[in-house]
Amino acid sequence: MEKEESQLPGVNILVLNCGSSSLKYRIIHMPGEIELVQGEAQRVGIKTDEPSKITHITHGNKRVIEGNLPDHVSAFKKAMELIREDEQTYPDVYIDCFGHRYVNGGRAYSKTTRINSKDLENLRATIGLAPLHNPMIFGVVEECAKNYKDKPQYIVIDSAFLSTIPEENATYALPLKMTQKLGLNKIGFHGISYQYVMQQGCKFLNKKAEDLKIVATNLGTGGASVCAIKNGVVIDSSMGFTPLEGLVMNTRSGDVDIALMFYLMFSNKMSTLDSERLFNKKSGVLSIFKHSSDLRDALHQISHEKNAERAFNMFVNRARRYIGYCSLLLQKPDVLIFTDSLGVEVPKVRGSICKGLECLGLEIDEQLNNAYDGGTADISKKGSHTRILVIPTNEEIMIARETYKQIEHDHSN
Predict the structure, then answer these.
(1) Do residues 91 and 59 make contact, with C-beta atoms less than 8 angstroms apart?
(2) Backbone phi, then psi, for 378, in 5-degree steps?
(3) How far apart are CA 371 and CA 186, in angstroms?
(4) Are 105 and 157 in contact (CB under 8 A)?
(5) 72: phi > 0 → left, psi -120 to 50 → alpha, else beta; which?
(6) CA–CA separation, 384 vs 358, rounded Å?
(7) Which of 14, 223, 389, 403 could link 99 by a cystine bridge, Cβ 3.0 to 4.6 Å?
(8) Count of CB atoms within 10 A of residue 32's CB?
(9) pTM exceeding 0.85
(10) pLDDT tens-place values along the chain, 413 residues long
(11) Distance (Å, rounded) from C-alpha 278 to C-alpha 111?
(12) Catalytic site residues?
């Protein structure tokens, strides 16, 4: 008599996705990918013109709560309060386990992992690898371990999808003995998002990833990046060993002459900690616009505030530089993808970035661009060599898939 295969029952995964200034969360029932609860805390722990708020939706019922959210643990606690209220009303709303996006797990954590108390100490050592993300994520992981000990936790590594970057693009021109010993190479980030929008773009175009050359932009109000994807694998990214490299971001400088840091440290007696804070937390849009680190706030004042216009132009020009580089690397892309909050919500960002890139085969249809109202859409001009797509990202569903895959693996062993 054949042994009957054991069937893994359905699992409710609370997906937690900490951005540098946001916390997205969803309860997703797997394997059916049924979304029961979704929410997002915005403007968390940063200076902006508007107050922090949480948008919380359960079975289509929406609530918006404004209040002070000084850090990601506070945002998580508030989200859990709302979920506990839901549990009293909706029988299918409950949590079996947590699935976290973890930005940089170092060499020790390069794939989805169920974590225990020993892992907590190991993860603490990775905090400095992504100063604007890992501390927040670790704080939430630690809070879950402390107050929800009966719920298993899994981390899904954000950089895993970018591990295919070839050596010539990933290696820094530093002594090889040092870089190999310490693992000092380009890691790249936003991998979970890029994997999702690549799959959605291929589905929309009815094409296989193996047959496409894609430039993908992930333009968030916190982090922002550009990457080149050839035949389904990433070959380069604007972000590097940490998420500081590349584009101008909300509080991150992006690319600068590294000698600036030396100059500040030696001539102005700036400490290493102050230097790190300057480039990661006091630069970018915030350093130019000053009123806010959110580019959307700058856009609201662009007609009468010179520094708002300057911050916007700096953001756009840096994005154009990397799109141009990736286009040359791919020898003309088949697809350009815009995703994340700025890439999806702000037509002026898309239009300004694409302006003047016709020489690279990128022609945007301004009417389609301005009329975009959600979902996956093609906003390229008829006859454009490169299809220009707007695709709302869904990192949470990718995190749920990877978490469930690991649960299945653990269950079968």
Answers:
(1) no
(2) -100, 120
(3) 37
(4) yes
(5) alpha
(6) 8
(7) 403
(8) 8
(9) yes
(10) 333 343 567 999 999 999 878 899 999 999 999 999 999 999 898 777 788 999 999 999 999 999 899 999 999 999 999 999 999 999 999 999 999 999 999 888 989 999 998 999 999 999 988 887 899 999 999 999 999 999 999 999 999 999 999 999 999 999 999 999 998 999 999 999 999 999 999 999 999 999 999 999 999 988 999 999 999 999 999 999 989 999 999 999 999 999 999 999 999 889 999 999 999 999 999 999 999 999 999 999 999 999 999 999 999 999 999 999 999 999 999 999 999 999 999 999 999 999 999 999 999 999 999 999 999 999 999 999 999 999 999 999 999 999 999 999 988 87
(11) 31
(12) 158
Nearest to 73 by CA among 20, 137, 124, 155: 137
Which structure tokens are listed for 215?
A: 């430039």
CA pair distance 391, 197, nearest whole angstrom: 6
